[in-house]
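=== RUN LOG ===
request id: a7f3
mode: sequence -> structure
chains: 1
length: 214
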Amino acid sequence: MTRFTTWSGIVHTTLSTLYPFFKLGQARELLAAGLGHNSYASLRLRDLAALESAEYVVLDLERLLQRAAGMGVPLTLEQWWPTHQERTPGRISKGCYLGQARVMESAARHVFEESSHSLFHEIANRTGMSDGHWAHDAAPLPGQDPSADELAMLVHGEVQAFNEHDSLATPVIAEVCFERIGRQLYAGGRVTQVAQHGEPHPYEPIYEAEIYGP
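=== RESULT ===
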C-alpha cells in the first residue's frame, strides 16, 4: 500500500466521524492541496511516484483548509490535528518526516549535527579534543526560487572542543541543502558550506554522572 493510499484512508476515516458524508475522494483532494497541487489529478501526474521515496514531506495546512472550505467542509485546524497524530507514527509515515514547513528546520539541524564536515574537525583541533557540534537554529536561505532544484537552509550552531585548560565553543554558520523531488517533497540533506561565525567562547561541558560501586 502506498503512502498516499494509507494517508488518505486515515484522513477519510478520521474526518468522516465529524462529517458523515465525507468521501474518500475528498480526502485525496485535501491531501493533494496540502502537497501544493490544485487537484488530486495533478498530484497523481506529477508527484505521486516521488512521494514514495521522499524523506521529508511538507504539508501546507492553509491550502488544505481552504480546499476543504471550497468543498463545503468547514474543517478547522483543531479538527485536522487528530489526522496528523494518526499519520505521524513511523509505521504510518513509512520512514519519512511529515509536517508543516518547520519540519525542514528540524531536518536541517539534524543534518548539521550528523555531518562530519572537515571544517568542524579543523576548528575542534585548534582547541584540542572534539566535544561535538550542535545546531541552535535553522531557517530557509532568503530569496530562494520556490521552484529551484534544491531547498537551502542556513543553520547557526557551534563546534565544541576542550583541552587541559579550556572548553571552547566556536560559532559557525552552515548551508544545508535538500534536493527537491516534488513541489513539497525533499530527499536527504547535505552540508554544502560551513564558515566560522564569531570568536570562540567558554562553555560548560556536560559530564555524565559517574556511578560508584559499594
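=== NOTES ===
The chain has a mean pLDDT of 91.
DSSP finds nine helices and seven strands in the chain.
=== END ===
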